[in-house]
Design brief:
By secondary structure, the protein is of the alpha+beta class. Helices cover 21% and strands 37% of the residues. The N and C termini lie far apart (72 Å).
Length: 411
């Protein structure tokens, strides 16, 4: 659940129900389902800040990665002491949310409005995908990378900076899509931006440039692109959704490439360019149909997934903060069995979507998979040992007391 503003400790506006104050939102304290909190989650901050900056953000594809189902907008609190504190406007945010066709409003009160992402767009907490996307770039930019997708895609984004070399070698051979993305900067001229891009596989890459400046976008006639100092390639601009401009495609070989971009306006003059985010994408065919997944939350440390209609290897994504303590086991196990049960190999446990867990499953059959936070076993063992120690201590004290009573009676 996403609360807007997404702050743990907002300023409460004086209303007929409350006085002006500063404190913790009680919703975060008693809700069973996880929530976004800007103070502890940089991605929640990203969502909050974009509303008042009036930038083009694909909120749907971004929120889906975090299994957000509900959005609650409050007008009786303000995100003071944050980057957006001075500019937050709940009426403006409400107008934006009301305009989205992928949201449905399910309640509206005096100071709160509730929205729900429509079921056909919702991405559950545990899901499968055969659409593995290898990204050469920083996972902090997952919001932009995700916006290159269609609203009903189910993909797993694996970033090069979040995996080991052994995992990288493995996943490069399993990926259905390759993306390299980074900021191009003014290194040689204020009218040219240059970037270095690591290409993971030979192919014809689509070229995208991220623009939040609509006026600048309208003024552009074409881009001049120079790759590794070669003769410039002229690319016409096609406007995409969510702030992306498509510049067509260019053939690139595996390796590191220096690419320069120059924008030319309708009068044939080079335009001033600031630091610009560029993405190069190579798409190939899917690795097969994804299986169906249903799951049950046993407790906060244990989930059980049922996977059916398996015809291909797949990635099982678990939208919980990545931690090597999370283990995936074939079949059903309890905490005691986890002491000897063999989990899926750690080199097939990946960080995906910039924060979540995922396991590459190559067993092509219907099965149960148990996701378990193994440190919980150590807690149980500690609890048992503490209990045994307490029983032993009480037994000793009882026997000592009985002995004392016996000695007193004998004397």
């Amino acid at each position: 659940m996403l609360f807007l503003p997404a702050v743990l400790s907002p300023s409460f506006v004086k209303t007929k129900y409350q006085n002006k104050a500063q404190g913790v939102q009680p919703e975060y304290l008693y809700l069973r389902n996880p929530t976004f909190v800007a103070e502890f989650n940089s991605y929640a901050s990203t969502i909050q800040h974009t509303f008042e900056k009036n930038v083009a953000v694909d909120y749907l594809n971004f929120l889906r990665l975090f299994s957000v189902k509900n959005i609650v907008l409050r007008s009786d609190v303000n995100p003071n002491f944050t980057e957006s504190g001075k500019f937050w406007d709940s009426k403006k945010v409400k107008k934006t949310l009301d305009s989205y066709k992928w949201l449905e409003k399910y309640f509206e009160g005096e100071y709160e409005v509730g929205y729900r992402i429509k079921s056909k767009y919702f991405l559950p907490r545990i899901y499968s995908t055969t659409q593995l996307v290898f990204v050469s770039g920083k996972q902090d930019n997952v919001d932009k990378i995700a916006s290159l997708n269609q609203p009903q895609d189910r993909k797993g984004f694996i970033f090069s900076e979040s995996i080991t070399k052994k995992q990288m070698t493995f996943i490069l051979g399993k990926s259905a899509e390759f993306v390299t993305a980074d900021y191009a900067k003014n290194l040689s001229s204020l009218k040219t931006v240059d970037g270095k891009y690591a290409i993971s596989k030979d192919g014809k890459y689509e070229v995208f440039i991220y623009s939040n400046n609509k006026f600048w976008e309208k003024e552009i006639d074409y881009f001049s692109i120079k790759e590794n100092g070669r003769i410039p390639i002229i690319k016409n601009v096609v406007s995409e959704s969510s702030g992306w401009l498509s510049l067509g495609a260019m053939v690139l070989k595996k390796g590191n490439h220096k690419i320069s971009f120059t924008a030319v306006d309708n009068n044939g003059k080079m335009m001033h360019m600031n630091e610009t985010f560029i993405a190069l994408r190579l798409r190939s065919s899917s690795l097969g149909d994804r299986p169906k997944v249903s799951f049950t939350r046993i407790n906060p440390a244990k989930f059980r997934a049922r996977v059916t209609d398996v015809t291909n290897p797949y990635l099982l994504v678990f939208s919980e903060s990545f931690n090597s303590g999370w283990k995936a086991y074939h079949g059903r196990i309890n905490w005691f069995q986890s002491l000897w049960a063999k989990p899926i190999a750690e080199d097939k446990h990946f960080s995906v979507n910039g924060y979540a867990n995922a396991w590459y499953i190559d067993k092509q059959s219907d099965q149960d998979i148990t996701l378990y936070y193994w440190p919980q076993t150590l807690f149980y063992i500690g609890l048992i040992l503490s209990g045994l120690l307490l029983i032993g201590l009480l037994t000793y004290l009882t026997l000592d007391w009985l002995k004392s009573r016996t000695n007193m009676a004998g004397s």
